[in-house]
Amino acid sequence: MVPKKTVARLILYKRFLKQLIDDGVKNTYSHDIATKFGVTATQVRRDLMCVGYHGASRSGYDVKKLYDEILRFFINTEGKDVVLVGVGNLGRALLSYFSGGKSHIRVVAAFDNDEHKVGRVICGCRCYHINELKDFVDKNKIHTVMLCAPATAAQDIAVQLIKSGVKGILNFSPVRLNLSADVYIEDFDITMNLEKVMFFAGSNTGFEEKINV
Amino acid sequence: MVPKKTVARLILYKRFLKQLIDDGVKNTYSHDIATKFGVTATQVRRDLMCVGYHGASRSGYDVKKLYDEILRFFINTEGKDVVLVGVGNLGRALLSYFSGGKSHIRVVAAFDNDEHKVGRVICGCRCYHINELKDFVDKNKIHTVMLCAPATAAQDIAVQLIKSGVKGILNFSPVRLNLSADVYIEDFDITMNLEKVMFFAGSNTGFEEKINV
DNA sequence: TAGATTGTTAATCGATTAACAATC
DNA sequence: TAGATTGTTAATCGATTAACAATC
Questions:
Q1: Protein footprint of strand C, defined by Cβ closer than 7 Å to any strand atom
Q2: What is d(CA B97, CA B124) in angstroms, rounded to the nearest whole number?
Q3: Residues of chain A with pLDDT under 70
Q4: Which of A94, A149, A153, A82 is nearest to A122 (CA)?
Q5: Which residues of B37-67 are buried (b: 16+ CB within 10 A; e: fewer)?
Q6: Which residues make beta-bridge pairs with B185?
Q7: Inter-chain contact B199–A89, Cβ cutoff 8 Å?
Q8: What span, in angstroms and rounded, lies between the C-alpha atoms of A119 and A121?
Q9: Is A98 exposed, middle or buried, given 0-12, 13-18 or 19+ CB atoms closer than 10 A?
């Protein structure tokens, strides 16, 4: 099984390779990619071996071929659509972010239980009632949901998502979801991460570590 | 030095303890916290030792005292304010999210280089020109910035942030920042994380691992 | 050829956890 | 006391990296 971190890095490499193609670059080296992302060249070579494409000694990697091979690695991801559940402040924000066309990922529907939102088109995305989720997921082969429900409702809604056949959740709510089923959950907790940065930023100001040395 | 992951978990424990206090719970145990967050009790005890508060064998941890001690651990974080740079779709969304009062963290100013935005109050937050950042940071002792600049501008703006004395960046832009200075950077890349979930959700559907066994 | 880069192994590193004496 | 929980050590685990033979 490919480690989670390798997958994360491969997504970044993919972006970078796309850019190299646009810039007309033909070849690249593990060292180039490594310096771009602040990792070691060995790490990059190891990651790339996971996708099954082999470079050539001395001439490195053919940018176009490597990119295609990474696309193939993400074959179950590319072209797939996602839906958003919970059209509050943050949900609406994400809808407008993804409708901006900056991302190649399409958010094809939003769901909420607020009757005022159901039926409306919000940031270019139609909003359905949460009870319609299962049908929509079945019909459109949706695997992935962005969950922006309030903390109090997140757990219940997550259970409903799984019953609807969802296989992956990007969880923006500040609640750890407790789900036994075979679902991939990635917690994306803005407040927690902001506090983390604040902590290390605060620790930074005194340069304690330098004094300790 | 306290590991990054421990800090992240302590922030979650803090939240949980707050809730326990509100619920009138007096004591708790490493096991309780562990099951709540899906980690081992040993892990929790190890994390809590970092904050310096010691539990009692048999009776566990005094919720109120432990909470206070964790607050003390985050003394450089609590009550500090942050600013946001880049008032696009995502930036505006974050402003409205934090102005909603759900978080105890205050976003006290926004910065942009678009003259149409400068001077206005957006989602309850005044927007200044990016050139005013240094003065503001100095005057208000700001350490932490949420960076929501577009990919093309992120690196240049980040350099400017550091020159202004910023010590921590929560980087929402899809670009790895290349900064030599003593700054803490946390990449918070929505598209990348969404793709990651899509990948694992896609791999989930076939239950390949079960077939391979 | 000499020099540079690859794939891969072995060593290293750091974080997690099992285990247990000490304690109430 | 017996049972449960703590703090802490030693072992485990997994991810990262140094090193190097093979290759162009």
A1: A 29-31, 41-42, 45-46, 48-49, 54-58, 60-61; B 3, 5-6, 39-40, 42-43, 46, 56-59
A2: 11
A3: 204-213
A4: A94
A5: eebeeebbbebbebbebebeeeebbbbeebb
A6: B169
A7: no
A8: 7
A9: buried
pLDDT of residue A212: 26
Report pLDDT for A83: 98
Look at residue B211 and tell me whether its pLDDT is greater than 50: no
Please report where in the chains the tokens 């695997």 appear, as a residue. Answer: A143
What average pLDDT does the segment B9-26 reach?
97
Go through A129-162 and write b for each residue having 16 or more CB atoms within 10 A of its CB, e for each that does not: ebeebeeebeeeebbbbbbbbeeebbbebbebbb
Residue A205 confidence (pLDDT): 59
- Total-model pTM: 0.92
DSSP secondary structure code for residue B159 in this structure: H
Q: Which residue has the higher pLDDT, A191 or B181?
A: A191
Give mean pLDDT, residues B156-171: 95
Quote the minimal CA–CA distance from B117 to chain A in Å. 18
Report chain B residues whose CB lies below 8 A from the CB of A89: 93, 96-97, 100
- Which helix (DSSP H) or strand (DSSP E) does residue B184 occupy? strand B184-187
Interface of B with A in 161-180 (CB under 8 A): 166-170, 174, 176, 178
Give the phi and the psi of residue B14 in degrees, each rounded to 5: -55, -50
